[in-house]
Amino acid sequence: MVKKAMIMAAGVGTRLDPLTQKVPKPLIPVANRPIMDLILRHIKEFGITEVIANTHYLGDLIHDYFDQATDLGIELNYMYEDKLSGTAGGVKKCEWFFEPGETFVVVSGDALTDVNLDELIKKHKSSGAIATMALKRIPLSEISHFGVVVIDDDSRIIEFQEKPSISEAKSNFVNTGIYIFETEIFKYIPENQFYDFAKNVFPAVMSSDHFLSAYVIDEYWSDIGTIGQYRMSMCDVLNGKIHTNTEYKHISGGWYSEDSIISSNAVNNGKVVVGQGSVIEGNTSFFGYSSIGSNCIIKEGAQVRNSIIWDNVIIENDVKLDGCIIASNSKIGKKSVLMPGCIIPDGCVIGSDQKLSDDFKVQAGVNCSSEALSA
């Protein structure tokens, strides 16, 4: 039985800027749960209770969050990297965590999935491979954004293509960043070097006596590496396209809530998740799919459509939000209008009567009002 796993959580997440200016990518919330939290809760369902994560960018925030997450039931260890060492290099630094001859799981820290790990491990064991990679079939129209994997009739990996064009792609299978490894894989990774799985390790394995196996998954998988994919993943969770181990209770009218206060006069024409301690005042309207974090206040007259709001956010009276993302500790002033694609990073204050479009750019913590407002 496989009991140990590693989460690759050291990435900077530059494609998610400005959301990652103050928050590491593994802590980006999806329907109010950090991605890494969802990963850990999922792998625990398959008996994995010992996990190590390599961290780097804002690593202390990851450590602090999970040190307080006492309900996970997982022994979580960390290996902090002063300097990034690549996907394989980071795993190499965690070699001490695994016993020789042990089979273990590796998952990318931005992989939102409900993959059946039992079936993946079973496939790996029966193949005799040194490593098995979970693949996902995607539409060819999206293929240029991913690393493509080519397999033979025996599900052995024979070639990799890095973000090929549609005309050049030799398959529509992509690497999910979910692996099953034997500890023999460490022989292919030198110490104290920047080393990558796709560029360095896997080609070396394929030219040796070992081989790489592939397993095509049917379950949900999303690489939350871009703003667009982040938005889509949140909608997928609310649509029930992925099973997540969450504690939200369903309330009539499309509300999903923890311990929150929702006015009976609030109108919901979609599906909305509301976090603990948040207050939704009367005469507010919601449309489409939205998530409201913990300890937020949505004041009277506000209209929210297809938006993601993190923790400790104040939305003042008569604000209109459409397709927006508002990070934690921010405040949106009265009668302001935020158009589709607008992103407000952590700790910002937007003044009253502002109209912001998708080309609005601001750094975390900036006060964008004509008067000093206290968040």
CATH arch. level architecture of the largest domain: Alpha-Beta Complex
Task: Estimate the helix proportion, in percent.
Answer: 10-25%
Envelope shape? elongated
Q: How many discrete domains?
A: 2
Amino- and carboxy-terminal Cα gap:
50 Å
The number of strands is 31
- Low-pLDDT runs of 5+ residues are 370-375
CATH topology of the largest domain: Spore Coat Polysaccharide Biosynthesis Protein SpsA, Chain A
Structural class by secondary-structure content: alpha/beta
The DSSP helix count reads: 6
What is the percentage of strand-forming residues?
25-35%
What would you report as the Rg, rounded to the nearest angstrom? 22 Å
Q: What would you give as the CATH superfamily of the largest domain?
A: Spore Coat Polysaccharide Biosynthesis Protein SpsA, Chain A
Structural features:
single chain, 375 residues, alpha/beta, Spore Coat Polysaccharide Biosynthesis Protein SpsA, Chain A, UDP N-Acetylglucosamine Acyltransferase, domain 1, 2 domains, 7-stranded mixed beta sheet, 6 helices, 31 strands, elongated, disordered C terminus
Give a description of the structure:
Strands 14, 15, 17, 19, 21, 22, 24, 25, 27, 28 and 30 form an 11-stranded mixed beta sheet that branches. A 7-stranded mixed beta sheet has the order 5-4-1-6-11-8-12, with helices on both faces. The protein has a 7-stranded parallel beta sheet with strand order 16-18-20-23-26-29-31, with no helix packed on it. The model is unreliable at 370-375 (pLDDT under 50). With 375 residues, the chain is of the alpha/beta class. The chain contains 6 helices and 31 strands. The protein folds into 2 domains: 4-238, Spore Coat Polysaccharide Biosynthesis Protein SpsA, Chain A (Alpha-Beta Complex), CATH 3.90.550.10; 249-368, UDP N-Acetylglucosamine Acyltransferase, domain 1, CATH 2.160.10.
